[in-house]
Structure formats: structure tokens, C-alpha cells
Automatic annotation (TrEMBL):
Annotated GO CC locations: cytoplasm; nucleus; plasma membrane; vesicle membrane
Similarity field: Belongs to the annexin family.
Keywords assigned: Annexin, Calcium, Calcium/phospholipid-binding, Repeat
Protein source organism: Cyprinus carpio carpio
Protein name: Annexin
InterPro entries: Annexin, Annexin_repeat, Annexin_repeat_CS, Annexin_sf, ANX3
Domain notes: A pair of annexin repeats may form one binding site for calcium and phospholipid.
GO MF annotation terms: calcium ion binding; calcium-dependent phospholipid binding; phosphatidylserine binding; phospholipase inhibitor activity
Superkingdom classification of source: Eukaryota
Length: 352
């Protein structure tokens, strides 16, 4: 149960601790594996791992423990070498082997682990626009939480996979200001400067205040332009200046002035500017809230962030919701003793 104190902390974290952000690192700008939970394995031997996986898959009954131990304790780069060694030895891709010998969400997470990060994001994008309806929440998560480099890599992977430009196909799935916002983010051209222009931050804060709270009607384009183009350090300063000018946080103003998918994506951008790990911790919590668990969201976030900032996501989850992420997965999703539960436990390592 989420107590009043936790709700208060949750509101405080996302809305009022602005000054603390100015010097803190951001997952959108720091290209490091230091905050991931999966590291490169010392003494790694791709051939030995491939042989062990082959034995686990081709024996009488698949040995899940071997699959979990190897694939959750190697970096993605090392897994790619294992995939090559496996195919060289067997003439069959490791992906095909896993899909033939495992099933359900366990299969999904194993296949995700052996997929290169950009290709994995690309496949999540394809899944989001597949079929009769578009899953906008996944599009919002992908484009709000990824860095320029990650977005460009996803676009390259999409072109290689489909022969089409990602932006071209995105245009056919969304519309209006939501489309405009996504297309700007999909270009992967957010300013990456680390310099902060306080005067510019004050000006941008004033522009958004006058386009929203101070205006009869909202000029959404002003918010979109600033939030999609300015650098993360610059936007953090702008959040501070906006609160000083208006007496409200920018998130509060967006929620008051806008609605629908545009509101959702602009709020997501603001949250990610402040803390991608906290935003993704919230996404994980919501995926387990209610009668059913969205395993695809668990897999996407835990696998994609396992070498980026999963340590920070775990810490933010504990702060926001008063329990460890793994314990909540175990309790809410009913995963104890299951292959998927053990897989997630290994990826998150010490989170018990």
C-alpha cells in the first residue's frame, strides 16, 4: 500500500526538488555503464559460453539455470560474441534456438538480452506501431527517455530492419501536436551543450508562462519547441526559473493547461529532464499496478537499462514506493521460483 508519506515524497520528487537537479548527472547526457547492474565478465570466453548454452538447449529438457546464469552475467557486447560463436558452431542462430526451446515471458526476456540495444529499441518501436492501434505510451517512453545517440541508433536499426526511415513511418501513426513533438525528438538533435545560459532560461520560462498560465488559451508550440530542443542542463535551469516566475512547477502548468497525449509526452520530457531513473521507476510501478502485470514493460525497462542506470532505477523505486523493485515484482507479478523471476533477479543482482 502506498502511504500518505510516500505520495508526498513522490509529488516532492517530481515537482519541488528543482535546485538539487542543477549539479546532478543525467542518464540523457552521461554515456557510462557505471550505474548499470550488468558488467563485462572478466575472463570471458565466448566459445565456452556458446558450448554451455548449446548443451543446455540441446540436452533432454532445457537447463534454464545455465541460460539464466550466462545471459544475465555477460554484457550485451559479450552476448553478441556468444551469438556469433553459437552460430559458427551450430549453423543456427542463438535467437532461433531460444525461441524453439523456451516459451512465454521467459523466452521474451532471453531474446531481449541477446538483442543489441539499438535493435531492441527498434523492435519495441515496431511493436508499438504494429496492428490496428498504436501504443502511444511506449512511443512516449522511448523518445522521452533516450539520448540523442540512442535515438539515432534506433533510427539506423529501423532503416536496416525495414528499409524505411523511422520518421516516415512514425508520421503515419500519430497526428497533431503529439506528432510534432515525437518527430522533433525522433530527429535526435537536442542541444548537447553543458553550458547553462541563465538569462536564456529566464527568457524561456517567461515565454512558456506567457504562452500558458498567463494566456487565455495555450500556445502549445512554444512549450514543444523549448522542451524538445534545449539541452538537459539548460532545461533544468529553466525549470527553476519557471517555478520562481510563476509559483508553480512547469509540470503543474502543463497538467493544468494541456490534455491527452500532448500533456503526457511533455510531462514525460520534464520528468526525464529531472531524472530518467525516477521516471522509469514510476513506469515500472504502474506496469504492476492493478489486476494484471504488463510483463513487456518490465522486460523492456529492466533489459534496456541493465547497463545504463538500473542501479539508480532500483534506488528511486525504493525511495518512491518504499519497497525494493524485485520484491514488488515478486509480490505483484507472482514471479517467485519462475524462470522469468530468476532472470530478473539475476539482472538486478543485489535487489532483494
Amino acid at each position: 500500500m502506498i502511504t500518505f508519506q510516500k505520495i508526498y515524497y513522490f509529488s516532492f520528487y517530481f515537482q519541488d526538488d528543482l535546485d538539487l537537479l542543477l549539479e546532478s548527472p543525467s542518464s540523457l547526457t552521461v554515456n557510462s555503464t557505471a550505474r548499470g547492474t550488468i558488467k563485462e565478465k572478466p575472463g570471458f570466453n565466448a566459445g565456452e559460453d556458446a558450448a554451455a548454452l548449446r548443451k543446455a538447449i540441446e540436452g533432454i529438457g532445457t537447463t534454464e539455470k545455465t541460460l539464466i546464469d550466462i545471459l544475465t552475467q555477460r554484457s550485451n557486447a559479450q552476448r553478441q560474441l556468444i551469438c556469433k560463436a553459437y552460430q559458427d558452431a551450430t549453423g543456427r542462430t542463438l535467437c532461433d534456438a531460444l525461441e524453439g526451446d523456451t516459451h512465454g515471458h521467459f523466452e521474451d526476456i532471453l531474446v531481449a538480452l541477446i538483442t543489441p540495444p539499438a535493435k531492441f529499441d527498434c523492435q519495441e518501436f515496431i511493436q508499438a506501431i504494429k496492428g490496428a492501434g498504436t501504443t502511444e505510451s511506449i512511443l512516449i517512453e522511448l523518445f522521452a527517455s533516450r539520448s540523442n545517440h540512442q535515438i539515432k541508433a534506433m533510427c539506423d536499426a529501423y532503416l536496416a530492419e525495414t528499409g524505411r526511415a523511422l520518421i516516415h513511418d512514425l508520421k503515419s501513426e500519430v497526428s497533431g501536436d503529439f506528432e510534432k513533438t515525437l518527430l522533433i525528438l525522433a530527429e535526435g538533435k537536442r542541444d548537447e551543450s553543458t553550458n547553462v545560459d541563465v538569462a536564456k532560461a529566464k527568457e524561456d520560462a517567461k515565454i512558456m508562462y506567457e504562452a500558458g498560465e498567463k494566456n487565455w488559451g495555450t500556445e502549445e508550440s512554444k512549450f514543444i519547441d523549448i522542451l524538445c530542443h534545449r539541452s538537459v542542463p539548460q532545461l533544468r535551469q529553466t525549470l527553476v526559473e519557471y517555478k520562481s516566475l510563476s509559483g508553480k512547477t512547469l509540470q503543474e502548468s502543463i497538467e493544468r493547461e494541456m490534455s491527452g497525449r500532448l500533456e503526457e509526452i511533455l510531462v514525460a520530457i520534464v520528468k526525464c529532464v529531472k531524472s530518467v531513473p525516477a521516471y522509469l521507476a514510476e513506469r515500472l510501478y504502474k506496469s504492476m499496478k492493478g489486476a494484471s502485470t504488463t510483463e513487456s514493460t518490465l522486460t523492456r525497462i529492466i533489459v534496456s537499462r541493465s547497463e545504463v542506470d538500473l542501479q539508480d532505477i532500483k534506488a528511486e523505486y525504493k525511495k518512491l514506493f518504499g519497497t525494493s523493485l524485485y520484491s514488488n515484482i515478486e509480490m505483484q507479478a507472482g514471479f517467485p521460483l519462475s524462470e522469468l523471476g530468476r532472470d530478473i533477479e539475476k539482472i538486478m543482482r543485489d535487489d532483494k
